[in-house]
Amino acid sequence: MLLPTNCLLCLASCEGDLCCACHDNLPRLPSDHCPSCLLPTSDSRICGACLASYPSWTRAIAALRYAFPIDAIIHSLKYQENLTVAPVLANLLMAKMNHCAPPDVIIPVPLHPVRLQERGFNQALEIGRHLSKKMGVPLLPHACVRTRDTLSQTELSWKKRRSNLRNAFACTTRFTQKHVAILDDVMTSGATLNELAKVVRKQGAIEVSVWAIARAIPSSTSIKTVEL
Ligand SMILES: [Zn+2]
Ligand SMILES: [Zn+2]
């Protein structure tokens, strides 16, 4: 039973996390996008970048496009320690997964120990807790570690992000024949998720799903959204 509650964004009374109006106004992914990296393409065909170098993941799922107000909600989780929004974000992602077979394990993208100390928590892990509970899939927050405190990715061009991340993760857990889901709050260039997907593959995973709450779309790409 859903108890009446208040919309996270406009405070109207509603039966979920968000009222219908706010939910309908969330920024969607482009209607035609690359099935691999989710960036806009014509006719939803695979993009040139993915054709040239296919990512290490099997599939990517993002609940939304990284734009207002989802960017503000994620920001409040990360930088204002508003942990109450973690289940809301998890629910938005869950809603995108109806037809997907659940993975065997979920790995939240680890923070470097220095960053973890600064922030006090890992936002991906907080979101992962709820997904794990709702889906009945084990969460493995310590299976992989971040070995390099990479420069803040936001200050680098998308191209430089890739080289900045080389050997950023290490993992000793074996995932032989497993379907592993890697979870992060935001997928920006995809370089972080791809780097971790590579490591998980090396550890034997046969299928890797990458999950993000929101996918950043570079402003230079044209966006065609669809009403859902
Ligand atoms: Zn609302
Ligand atoms: Zn692509």
- List low-pLDDT spans: 222-228
Query: How much helicity do the residues have?
Result: 25-40%
Note the main sheet: 4 strands, parallel
Quick one: how many beta strands?
8
Structural class assignment: alpha/beta
* Count of helical regions: 8
Run of helices and strands: EEHHEHHEHHEHEEHE
Written description of the protein model:
There is one protein chain. The protein is an alpha/beta fold. It has one domain: 3-Layer(aba) Sandwich (Rossmann fold). It has 8 helices and 8 strands, in the order E-E-H-H-E-H-H-E-H-H-E-H-E-E-H-E. The strands form 3 sheets. It has a 4-stranded parallel beta sheet, with helices on both faces. Strand 7, helix 8 and strand 8 form a beta-alpha-beta unit. Helix 4 packs across helix 6. The C terminus is likely disordered. One zinc ion binds next to helix 2.
